[in-house]
Specification:
The complex is a heterodimer of chains A (277) and B (293). Chain A has helices at residues 2-33, 55-63, 65-98, 102-114, 119-132, 139-163, 167-175, 180-191, 193-209, 212-217, 225-233, 241-261, 263-275. Chain A is mostly helical. Chain A has a single domain (55-275), classed as MetI-like (MetI-like fold). Chain A is globular, with a radius of gyration of 23 Å. Chain B is mostly helical. Chain B has a single domain (38-292), classed as MetI-like fold. Chain B is built from 13 helices and 2 strands; from the N terminus they run H-H-E-E-H-H-H-H-H-H-H-H-H-H-H. Chain B has helices spanning 2-8, 12-37, 53-59, 62-94, 100-108, 115-125, 132-139, 151-179, 183-191, 196-224, 228-234, 245-255, 259-292, and strands at residues 39-40, 48-49. In chain B, a hairpin with a 7-residue loop joins strand 1 and strand 2. Classes of the chains: A mainly alpha (277), B mainly alpha (293).
Chain lengths: 277, 293
Amino acid sequence: MRIDKFAIGLGKAVAVSAILIWSLFPIAFIIMSAFKPGQDIFAVPPKFVFTPTWQHYAKLWADWGMFFDGLFNSAFITIGATILAITTSTSAGYAYSRYSSRFLNASVLFLIIVRLIPPIVVTLPLFPIINAIGLNDTHIVLIALYATFFVSLGTVLMRTFIDQIPRELDEAAQIDGATRLTTLRTIIVPLAAPGILAVAVFVVVFAWNEFLFAFIFTATNAKTAPLVISEMIGSIDGVDWGVLFAASTIQLIPVLLFVVLMNRYLVAGLTAGATKG
Amino acid sequence: MRSNTKIIAPAMPFLAPVHILILSIIVFPSLYVVWLSLNSSTFGQSPTFVGFDNYFRTLTDPAFLRALGNTVLIVVFAVHLELAIGLGIALLFASGLPLRRFLLVAVLAPYAVSEVIAVAMWRFLFDPDVGPITIALASLGLPVLDWSFEPSHALVMIGLLTIWLHLPFTFIILYAARLAIPKELYEAARIDGASPYAAFRRVTMPLLGPAIVVALLFRYIFAFRIFSEVWLMTQGGPARSTEVVAVYLYQEAFRFNAFGTAAATAWIMVVASLILATGYVFLLRRQVVGNAH
């Protein structure tokens, strides 16, 4: 019996170590390598003790100035898309939660079906249209695209969260003479904050990391950080791994910290998103 | 009908922004793709109606069939392996672990990583000359992944990368469902003398069934549109041998300017996703009805 328990404990320890290595080793490897001097990056077995250096960051700054423009563009687009997505989905989620009719229920099903359309499908007609109206390579295009591909999930999530807020609160506010918009702003939004944060996690991670739309709809002016990193990977004169890891670390750290801090909302959003549509 | 309209009229201003975005950016463009797919067109030429010709040409194009085969291979290999690993981790977590919150965050971490960076790390780790994993495998006398020349090896790499990126999603769905199973059921099973394996077969599996189906369908649908991982890893090469459907679409549209076949490919993707999803909606309905009882 005691041996059994020991064996189970050992088995679990091995499994947990394997999971940690699988999930964290690649991330840790990139971040560490970004601080390793020159040849240490290629040492086998990998070096875990080394003298940290900023040399790759200095080189990144000197050779890839556009990476920092890309970071600025990514930040601007991420903030814009997040604000657009959470305002529109909160207001729609509120309406779906407080009103009901056959037409509205059918339109929720429509929102769910829209999620099934692969993003690459819309690039085909949008590319010539966006060129024709002169919006190619602008931030606004990516902001609209990123927000739109999350408002259907965002609306359904917000409806689920707002459903849990008692209707009596809105009714009391309305008796006091508040308009529906005021009710939404002053009563619903503060109480639905966890839902709003869950939607924000999805949009922030998606917009900060997205590749396909940025690849098709930007050239220089609105180029995002992932796109600049992809150019480093595809560089013809061979990849400068140190610089690539430095750029990757800068792009990765903020979103990684964000996901770690917001993990509760991410879990709540993923679970509700999968079971509620 | 009129009273109905009156009731929901005040809701319209709140709903309008979401629906304007979705209609103008997703729905109308997708419908325009239907029209494109029924016409023959390229730059600087007025389109002519050709019926289902583009679908016929796409479905008989060896490059498309290869791309479709690769996509199905990645979906079947990656999604099922991912499900098995995710289920294993979910059950391990549910069996009781110290530092559970920390471990949960560790498993979630890859969710934060962009496809671009994931490809960068994979390309380095498996680099044929300097990659630490390649060197480690070679020094143990094991076969290495020759992914830049050998298409099947490249597909294995892409499959592993996809699993790495999406395991957090599958894991969370299954773990949440496992936590929702009441403890009393396991106690009852134990009192009835059921072995841990019998409890797993008779309690865990049936009750996790719906969550497994949900996770599977979501992952089928999302894995089917895989683009970035493949494009950044191999660009579909060498010689179009590792293309997937989305990469084929991109090449047709933006490299060969063949909008007709690209549009037909796009709708083949939409229809495939809809077919997969019909099953999903059907199951959701049944679940909702089941919950109501």
